[in-house]
Predict the structure.
Amino acid sequence: MSKSTKKNIESKHTEQNLVGIAALRAGLLPPYETVQFVDTQRSVWNYSLFTESDIQNFQNGTHYSLYHLFGNKQIQVGGVKGTYFAVWAPNATYVSVIGYFNEWNKSAHPLLVRLDHSGIWEGFIPHVQAGEAYKYHIVGFQGIELDKGDPFAHYWEKRPYTASIAWQADYDWTDADWMQSRKEKNSLHAPISVYEMHLASWMRPDKNNEEIYNTYHQIAEQLVPYLVKMGFTHVEFMPVMEHPFDGSWGYQGTGYFAPTSRFGNPQDFAYLINALHQAGIGVFLDWVPSHFPYDAHGLFMFDGTHTYEYADMRKGYHPDWSSYIFNYKRGEVKSFLISNARFWCDLFHVDGLRVDAVSSILRLDYSRNEGQWEPNEFGGNGNLEAIAFVKDLNETLYRDFPDIQTIAEEATDWPKISKPTFEGGLGFGMKWMMGWMHDTLDYFKIDPIFRSALQDKFTFSMMYFFDENFMLPLSHDEVVHGKSPMIYKMPGDEWQKFANLRILYAYMFTHPGTKLLFMGNEFGVTNEWNYKSELQWELLQFPPHVGLQKCVQQLNHLYKTEPALYELQFSPQGFEWVDLNHRSECVLVFKRKAKIPANDLLVILNMTPIVHNNWEIHVYGKFEWKVILNTDAAEYYGSGQVQNSLIIGEKVYIEEEWYRIRVNLPPLSALVLK
């Protein structure tokens, strides 16, 4: 074929495209049927993976596996290898694929628009194979020209480059043992201790060069044995979805279907998850369906109009993060988001999603003053279509992956966040207990001499704990932006700071609920978290930091091996206050109860640096106790001077099983008795 003939054919094809969509909008064309018609005279062959049912579900917001259809697919058509492309751009008048393979020529490979009102542009391009960088050139509303990355791409160029890469996220998994057993590991009746981490800054190959990262394989080599040693049951990665700006920590994403290329390709990320699973460690991902940035290559104004975001900026703009809010009412957007959640559970075997900023999703007035938002049709502040989206999200995920967990970061008193939708709830498995975190840190920041005045605030968590399935978080948000690292939140000299932090962690691990600890908190980093540098691993040459790390290691072991700490962690039968009547001495006692009473534990918190010998406690049911954890032990950098041998009680009431025991309480310590 001559170059002039080829040019005429492509020009005619472009004209047909434009005429077709104009006629479609005028209602002059019949519904488009799925075709796999090959015209080898064209640079883009007419080929489709969509069925009529796919289109209907996509538009209705009920298609939850769009990653099998949209994006790029390396396939073979008519014996010719190439790539099928499909993108949703409902207000475009022209869409083409541009890349190095065609020298970024916007007229070389125009896609065909489906004539069924779906707004989908698609086509098969021969000889384009995996590894090719590409974008969609879009002529959008009012003739605006845009070059956009592929919203469904599995792989992107490493920033600062912004093109998508033709690639598939397939992997030969070897984690069958984990997948078969994770129902028990992820159960609400199992110990779930989460290590939250930021992949780039956990450990770096060169701490002085923020541009160099460990690869996913290198992270696996270092992280897996560390988590096994420390005893964490799960790891939670801060957002790994592709994002252009390091300083967003991943929360301003542009590639929702792609693990970031900073550390390798999608198979490398799958290798990391596979290695964690083989070591018996679950993987949660931080997921952000609440907002996205305005980067030119991203989702914002995708086809020249508000395609993915609300057009009304009272709902569509996020004032806190200068970003844009998904249009949860639009069926195609809802299908996009739920498909994305399923994508990570399906193709990457993740064990759960921690859903970011749920409060901002649910509330129309979130971070808005009067006059900056419009009430819903019933006069309330709930975003009704967002609430419906969240319910459908959780119902779908638990239907298709019943042994995962979804965890809400939600900081208000919105009811039934973690209750089933059939009970009027939102359907999450768990909710971050932000109230516990704030009240507990407020208590521990106070000099011990004044803590008696805050005892009610400290104990308040148990007044509402059983309203939800709570996870106790000491997360990244508490150690940035001038809030100080955990160790410097504690009062007193160095010894007292570490003693206080050991009590705090012991209280966290013995309080009902699952646990989450941000990286570096486990050994007491002295700097605020900085995404540009690695953790202060050099501190582990000093005894206070080693001792704190050993204490957290033992707390994880205790949590996993003592049934009283997990099997009834969401049941009122699993907790009992024993003594709250010594406010002036700041000594609190509670019991964690197991299904078998012989496994009950007694927890004693001495919140001042004063030693109390022969402290008297009345307990029911057992007369013989021994200390199984003492945060003041010398191996944890405690004083190690106050000891308790076997503790034998004396009967107080002849008719009932009440006993008086006497315990020596070390300074600033937590004791766990069994």
User: Anything to note?
Assistant: The chain is about 25% helix and 20% strand. Residues 1-37 have pLDDT under 50 and may be disordered. The first strand starts at residue 71 and ends at 77.
